[in-house]
Amino acid sequence: MADTDAPRRGRPPVHDRAELLDVAARVVVERGYDGLRFQDVAVASGVPAASLRHYFPTIGALRHEALMHSVRREMEQLEEQVARHDDPWDQIREIIIFSLGTDAAMRRHSWLLWLEYWRAAARDEVLARHSDVIDAEWTAMTLRAVRAGVAAGSFRLDQPEERAAYEVSILTDGAGLAIAIEPDNDELAAAQIEHVLRAARRMLGVSAPTTPRV
């Protein structure tokens, strides 16, 4: 049955919406944003396509929500990881390492998902607005760590705090593009992480550790 944007009416069955979105996100990684179909998610989840339409009336709605749900959840996971650290440099380090990824399977899923998200956001106003919010939150989280480091005297900046936080963020994203192309390459990922950590130390005026922890 062809996917259409015609909404379906009826009493919705009981399924875990978040789990369905997780499955849809995995399909996006494999087939691409535009390639996502109800039938693919039905096969992957075991939930009939008709039932999926009760939750997501159009394929466009499913595509939107799958990306936004996964990106939001990844943001929340990062915030939880960062909150475990009191030291500002450890917080910056966590942001960089979590974002670039140390596990090959997780790297592949995460970076391919982000590439689809950014590509779709370039043409979709809803996703573009969502992307602006996520970017602002990501930079704000980095900025909090930068400000804490400056206040503690452990960061010595030669530029405004806001600019330093932004540069750490874009440096991380830039390094991630190479990883996205070769997500299974552990050596490349480790090298990119160390490159970004070294650059961040220089930008923030942090002394390099005597023993690297990557």
| Largest sheet, strands/sense/barrel | none
Mean pLDDT: 89
Helix content: over 70%
Give the tally of structural domains.
Answer: 2
CATH superfamily of the largest domain: Tetracycline Repressor, domain 2
**CATH fold field value of the largest domain:** Tetracycline Repressor, domain 2
Q: In terms of per-residue confidence, which ranges show pLDDT below 50 for 5 or more consecutive residues?
A: none
User: Which series of helices and strands comes N to C?
Assistant: HHHHHHHHH
Radius of gyration: 20 Å
As a percent range, the share of strand residues is under 5%
Describe it for me?
This protein is an all-alpha fold and 214 residues long. It has two domains: 1-67, Arc Repressor Mutant, subunit A (Orthogonal Bundle); 85-214, Tetracycline Repressor, domain 2, CATH 1.10.357.10. The protein is built from nine helices and no strands. It has helices at residues 17-31, 38-45, 49-55, 59-83, 88-100, 104-121, 125-152, 161-181, 186-204. Helix 1 crosses helix 6, helix 5 packs antiparallel against helix 7 and helix 7 (125-152) crosses helix 8 (161-181). The chain starts with 16 loop residues before the first helix and ends in a 10-residue tail after the last helix.
